[in-house]
């Protein structure tokens, strides 16, 4: 495993590459379109499961052994944050590591770390639950919407925490959290995860209504149970937690990344070909598979594999994002790239994030015909896209540009791919292995 040694991107996450005399140097992808995809891809562990699971290591002084940890920029950033707090991390094998939080001596998550990755907020619940206090900078991350943390704060206050927000920091204190009934105003994945980790060490019973049902939340809950937590209702919108005095160590295999798998399925459906994915959980992709079949793709599936075949131009499909198990917002951009070269006109409705259409302008630079009306996008499929220089604006937007570039005539250069490295483990290598013409250009110039 090369999580710590890999220097593909800087750990701060502000840009992939290095900084020379104040100029940021960033990698780029160059893609020549037109190739059909054929072969096999092994899907990595889920980013959105690995990050809260790493933070859960703060809940015990014992060793937590993890496998199938993806080699991602966000994982490296999280490990750096944990090490800064005093957590010892050790790479123990391919995609394996161990955590030991027996000597935590710093309960602060500074702005310099949190500004680059919203998931850093997930140290808040574990720190308050185990150590009685925490000071966490208000988060940053992809600029796809406000994503407020007020639900995290309200939940902790319901459990008896004293919260102050000063100078850009959330300061939380509680001698010991108390069980409570928590009903969030909205479904929030990180809010559910943060409050779940806080509740497992709280005194008494916590009932969490309107909890997120995403598989990554369930994966975290399964680890917590292995550590000695008492949680009922895993996988439902009602979690009941009986607090315990302490947790112990555990061994856990991170769930495969359903969004990475969905992205590769979408790439084959758009570019054409025949690809088998390994190390997947097909049942977590029901909504995505339904739309791909509607677009004309043939999909076979087994316990831990999927085969997708596409021999024609896709048909346009309407999508509407919503919380799991509905169509995921993290697949919206990829399907927009598919719809851009599909037969017919499609409608894409985004209900989760208010600012998740920044890839539209870049797709249109490649020749797509896409218009925005509020939270709805109309996509008129075109006969062909044309290669151009484009810029990634967030993680999933990056993936949409890669898919579109593989369908375009000529060469496309995708800039600012540090976004891609935050959530995809060597995407270019996996795509090249199945026939795509994708190469990485190491940063060699200044970025304004």
Automatic annotation (TrEMBL):
Compartments, as annotated in UniProt: Cytoplasm
EC number of this enzyme: 2.5.1.7
Keyword field contains Cell cycle: yes
Molecular functions per Gene Ontology: UDP-N-acetylglucosamine 1-carboxyvinyltransferase activity
Sequence ranges assigned to domain Enolpyruvate transferase in this UniProt record: 32-431
Top-rank lineage group of the source organism: Bacteria
Binding site for phosphoenolpyruvate: 47-48
Annotated UDP-N-acetyl-alpha-D-glucosamine binding sites: 118, 147-151, 330, 352
Known catalytic reactions: phosphoenolpyruvate + UDP-N-acetyl-alpha-D-glucosamine = UDP-N-acetyl-3-O-(1-carboxyvinyl)-alpha-D-glucosamine + phosphate
InterPro entries: Enolpyruvate_Tfrase_dom, Enolpyruvate_Tfrase_sf, MurA_subfamily, RNA3'P_cycl/enolpyr_Trfase_a/b, UDP_GlcNAc_COvinyl_MurA
Protein's GO biological process: cell division; cell wall organization; peptidoglycan biosynthetic process; regulation of cell shape; UDP-N-acetylgalactosamine biosynthetic process
The protein's annotated pathway: Cell wall biogenesis; peptidoglycan biosynthesis
Coiled coil: none
Function recorded in the entry: Cell wall formation. Adds enolpyruvyl to UDP-N-acetylglucosamine.
Protein's name in the database: UDP-N-acetylglucosamine 1-carboxyvinyltransferase
Organism: Candidatus Paraburkholderia kirkii UZHbot1
